[in-house]
Write a structure and sequence with these properties.
By secondary structure, this protein is mainly beta. It has helices at residues 2-19, 95-99, and strands spanning 25-28, 32-35, 39-47, 54-63, 69-72, 77-80, 83-84, 88-90, 106-109, 114-121, 126-128, 142-144, 151-161, 164-176.
């Protein structure tokens, strides 16, 4: 009797594991575009390398005006379900730079110029301190990009135009299949 219950439990467990499906995320639209008279912005969620979830965005800003426009990163926020959820970091930052980041730069974009960055929400990163063992792929000390969750996500962009702040939201909807 015990033996048949044991094998029955094993069989049910194997069926449950076999029926579990891989979580696959998708973005609608795959890339969102915001067009104003002065600038165009494209925001595209990017899949984590080797995974099926999003963990960062490709941000493209094109200045269509005849004067410099400045992206104010200190006033630009990651949006999650219509709420501000921190600011952004960008690829190329080191662990030390990210840990000490207090004020983010204002980046001027010249007329007719296009600037592209890969950015990630700072509130979603995972920290790894020296001496703490994590995955083999994580360096001795560093950070990992976190999963961008399901829902409406994006950016509340702050652009300075002649000293005046212009704010625009650009959003995509992340769903899990």
């Amino acid at each position: 009797m015990f033996r048949s219950i044991f094998w029955g439990a094993i069989l049910v467990s194997l069926i449950a594991v076999g029926c579990a499906h891989k979580q696959i995320y998708s973005s609608n639209p795959p890339m969102q575009t915001l067009n104003t008279a002065k600038f165009e912005v494209r925001l595209e969620p990017l899949l984590a390398e080797g995974y099926t979830y999003y963990n960062r965005f490709r941000f493209e800003f094109t200045n269509k005006s005849s004067q410099d426009l400045t992206v104010s990163w200190s006033q630009t926020f990651y949006l999650q379900d219509s709420k501000r959820y921190g600011r952004f970091g960008w690829e190329g930052l080191t662990f030390e730079q990210l840990r000490g980041l207090q004020e983010e730069p204002d980046i001027p974009i010249a007329p007719g110029r296009k600037d592209t960055l890969v950015v990630f929400p700072l509130q979603l990163i995972g920290w790894k301190e020296v001496g703490v063992r994590m995955k083999a792929a994580t360096p001795e000390a560093g950070f990992t990009h976190g999963v961008i969750p399901e829902g409406e996500v994006g950016m509340s962009l702050a652009v300075l135009e002649n000293g005046k702040l212009v704010r625009e939201n650009i959003l995509v909807r992340i769903t899990m299949e």
